[in-house]
């Protein structure tokens, strides 16, 4: 099977992933009893099958539409899907078209990246250190392993675990941004003179 | 958040993204291909994980230029949706007894003693009774209330009502529904008549139920007693969420849990002068959903979407057609 196109990966990273959280919220509200994880997974699966994304003007809307269609197909297949009919169909038609000005709209922007970095900083100590060395300082895995006296395998596992945590929090909220980390972050920001 | 993978596919996909990030060894490529071939969803999960990895890479850009940093925006934790779900579950768990407490009695005068209560089709009424009890009367029902210092008698002539009975040990509260009697001291229960059948669901405490000439049985919260035409009274357990669903009418809702479209239409028609008709070809299709009793149109549309039909209207009839 051919490797995933790096163009598609970049496009999803800039234009789709930052909206996953909003999509999850919308799905949960519009269809309280569907398996949101299942629909999200299926949505990415469809995106993975795209041979080009040039025809997609509004990726956020496209992403919402894909998910909505998956829900509808499940309904038609008579799988057990509960619809809040009172608002269900109306919402169905508007899916993903509101929140024009939500912060997530500014997807490739600095704010989105700063949020990701805050999530990295909120990782458990070893994971945070390794992810920072690997992703922000750009050190090779082997070098990180030798510097920290760890096996390459451990380094790789920490990167994977860190990635999963950041993804979870990026798409589900900020539950695990620990207060201590927050304080450290604020201190750092203050040092940089961003905020009083 | 615990380290237990909420979704094992995502955890494995992140592992592969980390390996792809440092470069795959020869034999790993075959292993990745095998994993991707195992389930079409794996490819989607890998795309998501690699996109996440790309996002991490782009953080480096924050440190690569000297542009003045904008103050990071404080985003409120987006917890309301999850909270909503939790609250719903909590309500379901707390059982139907809770719902009684939610029913507002604002603006309602006490119902005079010894009088009748009648609801039109589509009407649902919350009626505080003179003794402090509450009756919630469903669409198309008729009730006659007769209170004396010694007894509290309610005759359910037709339809359905839920009662939350004020405690008064020396003044029994008895509901008559055809041949069935339900007696409570301080408790909550629902009585529904359909044809000659009577269905009692107890949501709080214990009631005594008997049918004329028969022996009394104690029916507890979480149980139902049913009298079908010509058959004796049968007591059976009812799950809390099933009871919750059956009593959703008190909040103006119909909850359908995997019933046929024909049965669903029948439930809906109890609330409307307009008729909902279902193409016989679709009558046996099963539907699931929770609906506002007053939104027949939305119900018809949702059902049509579920079973792959269409909706036609005219002359007080809404038809779901193939």
UniProtKB/TrEMBL annotation, chain B:
Pfam family, one: FecR
Signal sequence bounds: none
Transmembrane segment boundaries: 90-111
Keyword Cytoplasm found: no
Keyword terms, alphabetized: Membrane, Transmembrane, Transmembrane helix
Domain FecR protein: 117-208
PANTHER family from the UniProt entry: PERIPLASMIC SIGNAL SENSOR AND SIGMA FACTOR ACTIVATOR FECR-RELATED (PTHR30273), PROTEIN FECR (PTHR30273:SF2)
Protein name: FecR family protein
Native source organism of the sequence: Novosphingobium pokkalii
